[in-house]
Design goal:
Layout: H1 8-11, H2 13-35, H3 44-64, H4 75-99, H5 108-137, E1 143-149, H6 151-164, E2 169-176, E3 185-186, E4 189-193, H7 198-203, E5 209-213, H8 222-230, E6 234-238, E7 249-255, E8 258-264, H9 270-305, E9 311-317, E10 323-329, H10 336-344, E11 366-367, E12 373-374, H11 377-383, H12 391-397, E13 401-403, H13 410-413, E14 429-431, H14 445-457, H15 461-476
Parallel strand pairs: 1-2, 1-5, 2-4, 5-6, 13-14
Antiparallel strand pairs: 3-4, 7-8, 9-10, 11-12
Helix pairs in contact: 2-3, 2-5, 3-4, 4-5, 9-12
């Protein structure tokens, strides 16, 4: 019987449990170093800390997918992953203890030493456990795999399996369908069947599973698949393979009565989507509270400098082309949109991004006769990103997320080429990878698209957290408006 490999948490449950144990052992040792040989769980204060560390460890493991591709990581990559895991957990624990105001009830030395000991213990145990798994899987746990393909694809197919599936499969032979090569070898692997004797060869060989890889122009090999499956062999058919570095993710699912292969540059599990949305709601509520405080201060200043509405609304294009109205504190004069049409004729560009030094549409901004720029209230609002705060209401509504891609205006969107639309694969965000990567210096729209696509294809909750922290640094560094 074919046993489908477990995915998600179950796939790396052994590493997860080992990691949790390592963190708790590190906590016990750190306590013993500081307080002497005793049990920290007898002290109610340290008992709470131990529980917080456990909860933080589980949350970070869930958000960062720490053991994705763990068996393919080298020693340096493993150390980097272990160190990152420790830093994330330490940050969550310290934040939790600071928030609950229990900082006076424990030794900071214990917390910091726990992280250091965890890195040492977990790193070496991960290496040992991976070595044991590889040794065990190098024997009876591997499944015999027959590669059914054309001669032109044989070498590439074998190399791919040896690189990505060596822990699970042992390639026992080739079946070459476009020519008779029986008895020869390809990359040291024997060719055991030709175009007419695949079934006969399998009858007399150890074959658990078969992988069929044919050129794209060839039709689905229905007869061959039914013949092999009817013999009790598990058959995998490669229907499409993305190019390396494309960022595409593939998985099989059901749409109506159809079994389909889904390909997408963006993918998140239901749990990840739930956590991201909860984070957006919590952040949105906090942001709306701050927005209310800012309104008391900014509303009269904006109205005095430029009579009119305090808030600016504009139609933007969101996820997958859905339009919505974005909210901002007004930092420009009331006729800014009309002025933009005039200014567009004076500057060079393709209209996909509009950036201008000394923009006269900004409230109080003037270009002096000597060419220098005199900044005003609008510049202050934009430099400190205060105009963005009303967008937390868009986050609560679900139009936007805390972290995402910049939502284009309708006129920008109408100039998009097909590859630009990749930016709309996720909800737009108040901040994003482009904004924290030197946004004031990046004016080439293609570079913006590359950064946004990188964010989408490499997304994780851990990446969102990094971007949020970097956003705070960028804003207080006043590195341009977001």
């Amino acid at each position: 019987m074919y046993r489908k490999k477990a995915g998600g948490w179950l796939k790396h449950l052994d590493f997860i449990l080992l990691d949790i144990i390592c963190m708790q052992v590190a906590f016990l040792l750190a306590y013993a170093v500081r307080m002497g040989p005793s049990n920290p769980y007898r002290d109610i204060g340290y008992r709470e800390i131990g529980a917080i560390i456990l909860l933080a460890e589980v949350v970070v493991l869930l958000l960062t997918r720490a053991f994705s591709g763990v068996l393919r990581r080298g020693r340096y990559e493993e150390f980097s992953a272990t160190l990152s895991q420790a830093l994330f957990v330490e940050a969550v624990v310290i934040t939790a203890l600071f928030t609950t105001q229990t900082s006076a009830n424990y030794s900071r030395f214990v917390i910091y030493l726990t992280g250091i000991l965890y890195v040492c213990i977990s790193y070496f145990l991960r290496l040992i456990w991976k070595a044991l798994l590889r040794r065990r899987r190098g024997g009876a746990d591997q499944r015999s795999l027959l590669l059914v393909t054309d001669f032109s694809l044989a070498g590439e197919c074998a190399a791919d399996i040896m690189e990505h599936g060596a822990d699970s499969f042992l390639i026992t032979g080739f079946a070459i369908l476009d020519q008779n090569m029986r008895g020869k070898k390809i990359q040291g692997i024997p060719v055991v069947a030709g175009p007419d004797d695949v079934a006969d060869s399998i009858c007399r060989s150890w074959v658990d599973e078969a992988l069929v890889v044919l050129p794209r122009e060839q039709a689905y090999p229905t007869q061959l698949v039914e013949q092999l499956a009817g013999m009790g062999v598990v058959v995998h058919v490669s229907v499409f393979r993305t190019e390396d570095g494309s960022g595409m993710r593939q998985f099989v699912e059901h749409v109506g009565g159809h079994t389909v292969l889904t390909t997408s540059i963006s993918y998140a599990t239901p749990m990840q989507q739930f956590i991201k949305r909860v984070t957006d709601i919590v952040g949105g509520l906090a942001g709306c509270t701050i927005t209310g405080i800012l309104f008391i201060i900014l509303a009269p200043a904006i109205f005095i400098a430029s009579p009119g509405p305090v808030f600016f609304t504009q139609e933007r294009v969101g996820m997958n082309g859905k339009r919505f109205r974005i909210y901002k504190f007004r930092s420009m004069y009331m006729d800014a949109e009309e002025r933009k049409k005039e200014l567009m004729e004076k500057i060079h560009g393709d209209g996909l991004m509009f950036k201008m030094e000394g923009d006269p549409r900004i409230i109080g901004c003037k270009v002096l006769p000597d060419g220098s720029v005199k900044k005003g209230l609008g510049n202050f609002i934009r430099d400190w990103s205060l105009d963005e705060f009303p967008q937390f209401f868009n986050v609560l509504k679900g139009d936007m997320s805390l972290v995402g891609t910049r939502p284009p205006t309708v006129d920008e969107w109408e100039r998009y080429e097909p590859h630009h639309r990749a930016r709309l694969a996720v909800r737009p965000g108040i901040t994003g990878l482009w904004q924290v990567s030197g946004r004031s210096k990046i004016t080439d729209f293609e570079e913006v698209v590359k950064l946004d696509t990188k964010y989408i294809t490499e997304w994780s909750m851990g990446l969102d957290i990094k971007i949020l922290f970097k956003t705070v640094r960028v804003v207080f560094g006043r590195d341009g408006a977001m």
